[in-house]
Design a protein that fits this description.
The protein is an alpha+beta fold and about 300 residues long. The protein is built from 12 helices and 7 strands. It binds glutamine. Belongs to the glutaminase family.
């Protein structure tokens, strides 16, 4: 396994020069675009890592997986899917265009920014402070890492520049999708995106979802099985935004990317994978990361299709 991972890393390295660190969040631009790492955790408890797998990065859109899961656990599926759909968009992750469609009246899915912001509004808590505390606590629980926290510099950087996300939120408020105070809500969203993890943390989370929500160490059901099924189905169809179809063909496993360069992948009943490679393609997905996953998927026959 170590050897295959090393080969996947070498393969991925050939593609990092084709991408760039996310430029629209100034703090993310400082991250070296040549970083690349991967970590795997199997349901038998074996774990392997190569490259920059111990480097911390902000999980950005990968937080949408955790927040959707917690929103479903807090409210049940009926209430969540009343506010946000479960269909792929074919549009960029920060697109506003389909929000105006009268036939929809809600964002298309929880993996794009609009849908994620609407999902965050469903997290239980008396105010934004309590909501983000619950989200961070949940991230610690599912990763088994009590030290997970928020990168303040990245949070502040996005809070200063995140006007597109503010517009999505205000637009949804004008349509009645969001009922809460937009400024308070948007800061919860920026903070969840700025949570920091390593490939190891992501692999551990991936393994939990692939084990139907049962903790590998304690055997405890942390997430109901019905919810891990819903969330991984949405990851499969929408997890890489408007590249989800191509990713399903080339890799074929439920996954979620983020503009910090991370990818969380979960192979049902087999293993979890955490990837880090901040050089992004034009759709906001890790260039080297996708290549490593496609190499591994071929070598280990991981595709679910
Ligand atoms: N915080 C980022 C944003 O809202 C997350 C986007 C992403 O990772 N694709 O723009």
């Amino acid at each position: 396994m170590e050897k295959i991972l090393q080969q996947a890393l070498e393969h991925g390295k050939k593609y990092t020069h084709l991408g760039k660190s996310a430029g629209y969040i100034p703090e993310l631009q400082k991250v070296p675009a040549t970083d690349l790492g991967i970590y795997i955790e199997t349901l038998e408890g074996d774990a392997y890592g190569v490259g920059d797998y111990e480097k911390k990065f902000t999980i950005q859109s990968i937080s949408k997986v955790l927040v959707l899961t917690l929103a479903l656990m807090d409210n049940g599926p009926d209430k969540v899917f009343e506010k946000v759909g479960m269909e792929a968009t074919g549009d960029p992750f920060n697109s506003i265009v389909k929000l105006e469609l009268k036939s929809l009246q809600k964002p298309l899915n929880p993996m794009i920014n609009a849908g994620a912001i609407a999902t965050t509004s469903l997290i239980g808590g008396k105010d934004g402070t309590e909501q983000i505390e619950r989200i961070v606590e949940f991230a610690r629980l599912v990763s088994g890492n009590a030290s997970i926290g928020i990168n303040e510099a990245v949070y502040k950087s996005e809070a200063q520049t995140g006007d597109r996300n503010r517009s999505l939120a205000y637009f949804m408020k004008s349509c009645g999708v969001i009922l809460e105070d937009v400024e308070a809500l948007i800061h919860v969203y920026f903070k969840q995106c700025a949570m920091e993890m390593t490939c190891k943390d992501l692999a551990r989370i991936g393994a939990l979802y692939s084990n139907n929500g049962i903790c590998l160490e304690t055997g405890k059901q942390i997430i109901p099985k019905s919810i891990t099924r819903m969330v991984t189905a949405i990851m499969t169809t929408c997890g890489l935004y408007d590249a989800s179809g191509e990713f399903a063909v080339q890799v074929g496993v439920p996954a979620k990317s983020g503009v910090g360069g991370g990818i969380l992948a979960t192979v049902p009943n087999k293993l979890g994978i955490g990837v880090y490679g901040p050089a992004l393609d034009e759709k906001g997905n890790s260039t080297g990361g996708i290549k490593m996953l496609s190499y591994l998927s071929d070598a280990l026959e991981l595709s679910i299709f």
